[in-house]
Amino acid sequence: MKRREMLLTTGLAALGLSAFPWRRAAAADQAKRKLLMFTKSSSFEHSVAKRTDGELSHNERIMTELGREHGFDVVCTKDGAVFDGDLDQYDAFFFYTTGDLTQSGTDKQPPMTAQGKQRLLAAVAAGKGFLASHCGSDTFHSAGPRREEQEKKDDYIAMLGGEFIRHGPQQQARQKIVDKNFPGFDQISPAAVVEGEFLINDEWYSLKNFADDMHVLLVMDTQGMKGEDYERPPYPSTWIRRHEKGRVFYTSMGHREDVWTNKDFQNMLLGGLAWAFGDADYEVTPNIKQVAPGAHVMPPPVK
């Protein structure tokens, strides 16, 4: 493995084996969890994922520090060849990616092979955890004449549970907290919540191709939002789902640097990690039809 891919072996956190406050009691000899963080940009490269002079990107540094504090190991890479290697060593995968990852694209980093993509999907289906933030849904787009249309899903999108259409201007927006009992969501700061909705400034994705079996955690409250991309009923913005034996977590948040340093966002990620790692049990009850009945209504086409 290249040096810049950086195997980041972190020490046990000061909190010890119960570093996640919601983590189940574990045997003293239990191995630490290991996360592969993949940040290749085959299309648009977000500033939080950009490396300078071979140093870790902003979000890679944040995730590394969370691992150090909470007792899990992190491997950061932009090299798609990793998926042709040993995937058994990882407990979960985290994607902050864009475009067709089988192409070298914008960042010119080595792409995934078609076989590597299938190996990833098979690993998740067999029981690995998978997490993605923000542009993880702007990856491996489904084929179709227009992005605004519901289309036959790409296998990656089917696994993730939703797909990026486009976005409007960055703005403070409200997300209805559907499930405040999910790990990490019970730790959201009261100052960030107004009438049961979480407020934060970010770049908000308009999404489509939602999985019917997802358990929605946050719903995008589109009322009053600026931009035609949000001229649609409320839709899921953060969710979990089972992909066969695997555990999937996605949040549309994560464009801005200050979002990655926000403790509420970090707690949500840690809750998603605890669940994806298998360290927190949670009932994945499909609820999209109840909490976001208009989710499949698309925004108006681009003029």
Please describe what this structure looks like:
This protein has 303 residues and is α/β, with parallel strands linked by helices. The longest helix is centred in the last third of the chain and has 15 residues, at 263-277. It is built from six helices and 13 strands.
Biggest sheet, spatial arrangement of strands: 1-3-2-4-5-13-12-11-7-9-8
Count every helix, treating DSSP H or I runs of 4 or more residues as helices: 6
Q: In sequence order, what are the helices and strands, one letter per element?
A: EEHEEHEHEEEEEEEEHHH
Strand content: 15-25%
Q: What structural class is derived from the secondary structure elements?
A: alpha/beta
Mean pLDDT score? 89
Low-confidence stretches: 1-19, 24-29
Radius of gyration: 18 Å
Largest sheet: 11 strands, mixed
Shape: globular
Features:
single chain; about 300 residues; alpha/beta; eleven-stranded mixed beta sheet; two-stranded antiparallel sheet; 6 helices; about 25% strand; globular
